[in-house]
Amino acid sequence: MTTAKFITFLLLGIGLSFDSFAVSVSCGLMKREIKFKQATLVAASLAFFQATFPVIGWLIGEAVKNLISSVDHWIAFGLLALIGGKMIVEGIKEDGTLKNFDPFKISVLIGLSIATSIDALVVGLSFGFLEIPILFPVLVIGSVTFIAAMLGMLFGKNISAKRSHQSLMIGGIILIAIGLKILAEHLFMQAI
């Protein structure tokens, strides 16, 4: 594994974890007396789904890559740009998308975990199209998400909700940048 690939996967993990971070900040804002065990449960659920969804997407991408191999890099770019753009728009919105809720209720926790992992499914789909091995990126994505979620709950006790919106915008920018990198690499390889 090259340093460039490691940095790309790390940035991808950071980009994908920003929505989980924002949800965790909201948990910290609403449950200021959150215990370490509760925080660990929330972070583990977010990280599990964030790491599992790329595998599902990868399997789908691997199954259909031969059908779209000539445009796979455009699809990867489009999907990452779409998700990144959505994150930026959500970050710009002034009103919080999370109202009063109990993040420790299993149905709420699973719902939040799935909602914050849809973008990871799309990234996994892109990896399948591009034939990128999935194990290392999944480990990075899951680990980064767990750390981001734990920090988010800690920070949620001490920061304003506006910062969570800013984190979504940063995550969206990172995902778009990675999509541009994938597109540029493939266009450069075709030009050689």
Automatic annotation (TrEMBL):
Protein name: Putative manganese efflux pump MntP
InterPro entries according to UniProt: Mntp/YtaF, Put_MntP
UniProt lineage: Bacteria, Pseudomonadati, Bacteroidota, Bacteroidia, Marinilabiliales
Membrane topology note: Multi-pass membrane protein
Domain of life: Bacteria
Location of the protein in the cell: Cell membrane
GO molecular function: manganese ion transmembrane transporter activity
Function: Probably functions as a manganese efflux pump.
PANTHER family, per the entry: MANGANESE EFFLUX PUMP MNTP-RELATED
Keyword annotations: Cell membrane, Ion transport, Manganese, Membrane, Transmembrane, Transmembrane helix, Transport
Family membership noted in the UniProt record: Belongs to the MntP (TC 9.B.29) family.
Residue stretches spanning the membrane: 6-29, 41-61, 73-92, 104-128, 134-156, 168-189
Record-level GO cellular component terms: plasma membrane
